Amino acid sequence: MLRVLVRKELLDNLLNLRFITLCVVSIVLIFSSIVVLTGLHNEDVRDYHNRLNTQDAFIDQYGHSNRISWMSSLFREPSRYRPLVLGIDRDAAQENFVNNPVPALLSKLDLVAIVSIIMSLVAIVLSHNSIAGEREDGLLKLMLSNPVSRSTIVLGKFIGGVITLAIPFSLGVLLGLAYISIDAEVQLQGTDFGVFGLLLVLSYIYMTAFYGLGLLFSARSRTSSAAVLKSLFAWVVLVLVLPNVSPFLAAQMYSIPSRAKIDRELNKIESDDRDEIFRKRVQQLFQTTFSDLTLIRSMTKPDLQKKLTDDAAFRERFALYQKANDDLVREVNREQRRIADAIRESFHNQSHRQEVFATVLASLSPLSNFVFAATDAADVGLDSDAEWESQASAYHRVFGDYVELRYREEKHKNPAFTSNDYLDLRARPRFQFQQMPLSARIERILVPAGILMVFNLLFFAGAFVSFLRYDVR
Amino acid sequence: MIWPIARKEILENLLSYRFFILTGLLALLMVVAVIVGYGDFLQRLENYEVLRPPPNSPVIIIEPTPTSILAEGLEANLTRLHEVSFLGIQIQRNQQSVNRIFALFAVPDMLFIIKVVLALIAVLFSFDAIAFEKEQGTLKLLLSNGIRRHSLILGKLFGRFALVFAPFAVLFLLALLAISLLPAVAVTGTFWLKNFITLLVACVYTLLFTAIGTFVSSMVHRSSTSMVIGLTFWLLFVFIIPNFGTLLAKTLSGVPTSDRIEMEGRLSTIQAIYERIQREKESRDGSEGRRMIQQIRESTLRLVELYQPKMNSLTRLTKSIVRCSPSGAMHFLITDVASTGLYEEARMKDAVVQYVNRNFGRINQLEQGSPDTFLYTRSSLSEVLAETAFIDILVVFFYAAFFIGAAYVRFLVYDPR
């Protein structure tokens, strides 16, 4: 019996104009979004390689230990899933002065946005009249006069409707994926298909939840127009209100200092305070160990040069002083960096806690769970961002140590070597971002996907119970 | 005869469920929009207070504007910190928000509510205007009562339009009042004037989407079909055309990405520094530093000057393509009026480049004296209207007129049986 009902729902939907329009629209929308984003992605990838190669060639040719930080920024390779999932969009070009402002103004529409905002709306549009509408037409009375149980009817409607929804969506996505796979610049690997599969499954679960929601309100309304409005209201709350309010609420309940303030404080510790402390220590040095050298502070440069060439004992003493001075610079730098690192760490921990809090609040909405799961599956989500930051700062330390080591080696070979001389860094360690393996990603998305399933069950159970008690007259 | 029909439409719907739910929905969204917009505004204000430079220093940051609470637009880009040195213009990384979750969701500001939600509500309020009466058989009854078709269609159109727009207008004004009472917002006359224009545009925009719904409703004979077709128009105008237009413009114009320019600039800068160091080993008369700075100035600033017009032409092309959609035109219009749009962005960049050209010598001690303080006032309303916004107004009005006409003509030949 269930099969007959599912078939009836399917045929009902497939043969009308509504379905055909829906099909065309979702295919056009999804396909166009994938084409647009693939184009932008290819451009980003070219830019990324250009940036990387330019910088590499640069260090090889012009490396010197002074100002090395200007030419050793790390760039993140654009994720290969960007045609589908933009995730936390770290658009490197947005930090340039000459940039194209249009993408920042008209937000880009990726598959995640299409599914989470538009397809959920489509699901409601499809399901809102499946019970209330049939009551209005009198079909429901007719159907129940046959020996069919109510649970079979509601199950049949649910399954038939979900399949109707899945067909145009899958067609659009498959066409898009076909476009990606024939695009010469994107080379797909085995794991990519795993990720695409995950994204599809997550999208189905999410859309099904909204189909269930529409069915629930349809079974709780007398007319289909009342049903569509109730579900629309729920849609606005779940899709637009909850996810956006949660970070704000989290920031209200767990407030942390602003980034600008912290940056200013760090800057003070690492430059103004440092210089002040350094001055004081040098003063001390002259008062204690090098009290005999106090007079050099008032000497002019030519006088000092003259004394250095004339007086051998003084020269030796001066070299000692210079060494002590150098040690002092390094020591003060180290101390201040330690203080600054502690502040950085505590700020980092605070903002992390705030973020976790916001994530938990946002989990009340299916949209947030879907977005978290989809971005994590493509490894462009919050965790992946944190991972990138930590790997990048680890590399910066390694690279800094390497530059210092090379500098000392050169200095050892040639005492006249300065930080402004060419330093051969061609054997430097290279940065390679280690992405999380697919299995670990699947593990991470289990929680949001599980919550999505709970929403699914809740909405469907609600629809089921409401329909059992529905007055069909 | 139009008025009785409109009155009937309003009364019929005013008491309905639909009206209450949609009003509640708009109210809820507006509360969220004001809360989130104000939160962002406060954060930018705090940033501005912390980073604001002392006078005569080559640092550029402009004050956030309270109109950005309603239409955020490019405000995040506009209020960034620009530092000017011999390296050119450097932008500090976006300080906007610590909370990265914001980056994952689309923030629903007032512009979003108008562009996406209000348009959707207008379609949902009008898709059944004709087709449903036909399904019920009441259309035949109505027409047998000596009501002229043209008054029936216009009455329906304006009645339903009023039902959507009236609650929106009331809520919008309440939201404005709430914003003007917030502590950090200094409200001026322009603020009200700008938002009055936004309200006016929202009015025409609502009328436009009501007309689309009515037009579709008088095309087909079943209300469920008309709903889907109405939603298709909504998707096309609100999402598909603006989204596709961006790429189309980029492909057509062939402007290289800004990244390439930035990289080239950096390359020539470090090269200049390196050459200076090499040359200073031979002679040390202090002229090398000046030469280096001149060299950097010529290479980096010229790149900006050459590239910026190209970027501007790309923006213009994108604008023309996206204007094929009334929603796109309205997006440009409202952000431009709120001084957070593309026009303001280009204007501010021009001002920065001019400032740098004027002061480069003084900033880098090539000339005597200290640099000017960067002063910038956002564009005035009349300037925006004259320079760019009138085209967008024309586009929105044209579409509104077109769909009203189409609905009218369609209904005159409609078969009510």
Largest interface: A-B, 98 and 96 residues
Total number of beta strands of chain A = 0
Q: Rounded to an integer, what's the Rg of chain A over CA atoms? A: 32 Å
Category by helix and strand content of chain A: mainly alpha
Give the terminus-to-terminus CA distance of chain A: 23 Å
* Helical percentage of chain B: over 70%
Using only C-alpha atoms, the radius of gyration of chain B works out to 27 Å
Strand order of the largest sheet of chain B: 1-2-3
Main sheet specs of chain B? 3 strands, antiparallel
Low-confidence stretches of chain B: none
Main pleated sheet of chain A: none
Oligomeric status: heterodimer
From the spread of the alpha carbons, the general shape of chain A counts as elongated
How many structural domains does the protein architecture of chain B include? 1
Percent of residues in β-strands of chain B: under 5%
Compute the number of strand runs of chain B.
3
Helical content of chain A stands at over 70%
Tell me, rounded to a whole number, the average pLDDT of chain B.
84
Strand content of chain A: under 5%
Order of helices and strands of chain A: HHHHHHHHHHHHHHH
Q: For the terminal residues of chain B, how far apart are their CA atoms?
A: 23 Å
What can you see in these coordinates?
With 473 residues, chain A is mainly alpha-helical. Chain A has helices at residues 2-14, 17-62, 102-105, 111-127, 132-137, 139-145, 150-182, 190-218, 224-253, 259-287, 301-310, 312-362, 366-377, 382-413, 438-468. Chain A is elongated and about 120 Å long. The mean pLDDT of chain A is 84. Chain B has 417 residues and is mainly α. In chain B, strands 1-2-3 form a 3-stranded antiparallel beta sheet. In chain B, strand 2 and strand 3 form a beta hairpin. In chain B, helix 7 runs antiparallel to helix 8. The relative contact order of chain B is 0.13. Chains A and B meet through helix 2, helix 3, helix 4, helix 9 and helix 10 of A and helix 2, strand 3, helix 9, helix 10 and helix 11 of B.
